[in-house]
């Protein structure tokens, strides 16, 4: 590689992977931040944290 260039990852020196200490109990996907896990968990529960203004008015007959 050329001088001053960052070395590319190789099998002997893999790229540094940040830790992901928060795994999802439902699917096993891990997250770096607890808040990200909480948002992801809603994909399994179907929870919608904010009301939908369209549905709050009701549907036409």
Automatic annotation (TrEMBL):
Location within or outside the cell: Nucleus
Presence of the UniProt keyword Repeat in the record: yes
Domain C2H2-type: 22-49
GO cellular component annotations of the record: chromatin; PcG protein complex; transcription regulator complex
Renumbered residue ranges of the record's region Disordered: 1-20, 42-61
Top-level lineage group: Eukaryota
GO MF: DNA-binding transcription factor activity, RNA polymerase II-specific; RNA polymerase II cis-regulatory region sequence-specific DNA binding; zinc ion binding
Keyword entries, A-Z: Metal-binding, Nucleus, Repeat, Transcription, Transcription regulation, Zinc, Zinc-finger
Name listed for the protein in its UniProt record: C2H2-type domain-containing protein
Organism encoding this protein: Taeniopygia guttata
């Amino acid at each position: 590689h050329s001088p001053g260039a960052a070395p590319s990852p190789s099998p002997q020196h893999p790229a540094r992977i940040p830790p992901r200490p928060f795994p999802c109990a439902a699917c096993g996907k891990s997250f770096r931040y607890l808040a990200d896990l909480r948002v992801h968990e809603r994909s399994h529960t179907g929870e919608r944290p904010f009301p939908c203004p369209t549905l709050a008015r009701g549907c036409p007959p």
